[in-house]
């Protein structure tokens, strides 16, 4: 076979290469209802060009996807978003943004496999869409933090009221964020890493 043409294939771009200091990589999933900001979060925080599988909403989504608060949204993620961020010189996180719509739940088993933790994004206008997502994470034993993506026209509630409304136990971190801002998205990931660390410490003591 003739492989002569293969030298024209571009190599990996520098920014796509794993930093040479990296010693560990962890898989983190970002979940939440439709239009809550998953794709935006992966996009704002990723150091590599995020992979996104956006597809124009299909007939199957009409009347099924809850468009509240995202009436202008014409694309939805059917498979997932993928990104990467270096949290420390040694630790790299791989981010998987996954759809929260019921008809894509069959994808979840594989997507949660090996996940160290999760970020559940919520929109205060549609809290109920997050219930199922959190239930499924609990079932699978994936620890998570809750990040309230503050849309300007969404009602604001004290975080402790949201904790009660979401029926979260007191140890689950809950915070506000603006996923369009890189620093804010990064803060959410740092909170998750601290939470995972504290869980690991507690487990090793018992
Ligand atoms: N105002 C505002 N808009 C946002 C915010 N996060 C996402 N959006 C917009 O909301 C829409 C849905 O976000 P997207 O990331 O696609 O949601 P996904 O379905 O969870 O992936 C997009 O048009 C975003 O630009 C936010 O924090 N504030
Ligand atoms: Mg999306």
UniProtKB/TrEMBL annotation:
Keyword Transmembrane (UniProt): no
GO molecular function annotation: ATP binding; GTP binding; hydrolase activity
Keywords: ATP-binding, GTP-binding, Hydrolase, Nucleotide-binding
Pfam family, one: ATP_bind_1
UniProt cross-references to Gene3D superfamilies, sorted A to Z: P-loop containing nucleotide triphosphate hydrolases
Source organism superkingdom: Bacteria
InterPro entries the record matches: Gliding_Motility_GTPase, Gpn, P-loop_NTPase
PANTHER family with a match to the protein in the record: ATP/GTP-BINDING PROTEIN-RELATED, GLIDING MOTILITY PROTEIN MGLA
Family listed: Belongs to the GPN-loop GTPase family.
Record protein name field: ATP-binding protein
